Amino acid sequence: MRERFRVRGGARPVGAVTVVGAKNSALKLMAASVLAEGRTTLTNVPAIADVTIMAELLRSLDVDVDYDPAAGVVVLDVPETVGHRADYRLVRALRASISVLGPLVARTGQADVAVPGGDAIGSRGLDLHTAGLEALGAAVHVSHGYLIAEAPHGLTGTGIRLEFPSVGATENILTAAVLARGRTRIDNAAREPEIVDLADLLVAMGARVSGAGSSHIVIDGVEALQPTSHAVIPDRIAAGTWAFAAATTRGDLEIVGGVLEHLRAPLGALERAGCTVEPTDRGFRVAAGPARPVAFDVATLPYPGFPTDLQPFAITYNSVAAGSAMVTENVFEARFRTVQELARLGADAQVDGHHVMVHGVRMLSGAPVEASDIRSGAALVIAGLVAEGETLVSGVHHIDRGYPRFEEAWRALGAEVSREPDEEPWEG
Ligand code: EPU
Questions:
Q1: 170-206: per-residue pLDDT in tens?
Q2: Nearest-atom index, ligand 1, CA of 167
Q3: Which of 50, 163, 166, 198 to mutate to test the pocket of ligand 1 (most atoms within 8 A of CB)?
């Protein structure tokens, strides 16, 4: 059933909100579990649909997966022999399925993973993933919509320099190299906290990895890995979402479980724009100043730069801030879907190539809008809170992929956000 959020404008959320485990870490850790025979346990796993899909994918590879969303625990029991085919039906539903590529080639000598195709965030390439695996000695080709990587005699460590610090490619090379013969060195590696979390899991499994979190990762291959237990890091993008929510709505939120260190660039920008940003015993607090928020320019970059996943929130913030700002997207080609929906709410924003020029207006005005991906959907809910009247945000399934029970979190903070069936326009 299609659902939508009904958002009433005008609330200033105040209180504490708890950050869930990182989606983009949990999915990769689940995929990496196939590297070791036996039972790996992951905790602090978010209760989101993407985890259910990854569980289904791993089951299709003969892994016995027990996912308890309420407890946030996934137990993965990996057999001696795992399958090697990631079906299009699942990959299409979850682009992050591509993260089984590295672990499968390393463990079974073969991976057949459906090519994901385009999505609302632009056509994301896989050339860096495949070049990395080829450098490690795998033969890679595409056949009938599947990326097929074969290394029947195992992989061999080597030096790999990434043209761009791709998160997914760094992860696939890392998870492939842990079982390769000899030393692999990844230069210009992605430095995201999720890479560090993955490396921590691999080290706990017995892998020899150093340098994760820097641009140079060194991996010394081992014969086999052992299962382990590991807690997923807090979701920095969810934490950043709440930080922007506080700043945009002139609220005051304690973000429990949030890691300030992971959000230096966006929190620094909010602080310079007049917000109070301070650590607390349980996370950090972001409180807007008494005056209207002040516009600021943003340019997204790989970590530790301003995260592309927070870019829709920066546009939303600027759309009601005092002044004008330029938001530049440097990581993805087409990630400005929020703009046309914000325009329906009365925002003054124009896309020009990979820039958006935003002129702040005093108030948005409520209207029906459509979420097209996780982040733009969450950003539209925040926009609804600073719009006069009611905003209906359709496409809630996108928001559910990253923000479990989003409406309940808002209500606990005093904002009126409710979930309801989404009637097609011609039905009413
Ligand atoms: N790219 C290539 N070739 C490649 C790999 C990447 O050209 O082989 C390009 C992409 O087209 C893109 C850029 O490099 O323009 C960045 O891609 P990257 O590989 O770094 O991103 P990703 O691994 O596909 C992850 C997150 C995204 C997040 C980005 C950037 C997951 C499942 N996804 O994607 O998260 O935006 O890193 O930080 O980890 C989200 O959670 O909403 C989301 C989209």
A1: 999 999 999 999 999 999 999 999 999 999 999 999 9
A2: 20
A3: 166
Q: Which of 231, 257, 272 finishes a domain?
A: 231
Q: pLDDT for 98-108, tens place per residue?
A: 999 999 999 99
Pick the catalytic residue: 119, 197, 352, 400? 119
Residue 422 a catalytic site member: no
Ligand 1 atom showing the smallest separation from residue 190 Cα? 20
Could you tell me which of 203, 201, 208 has the C-alpha nearest to residue 222? 208
Same domain, 361 and 382: yes
b/e per residue 159-194 (b: at least 16 CB within 10 A): ebebeebbbbbbbbbbbbbbbbbeebbbebbbbbbb
| Atom nearest to 168 CA in ligand 1 | 23
Position 428 in a domain = no
Whole-prediction pTM? 0.96
Question: Is the domain of 147 the same as that of 13?
Answer: no
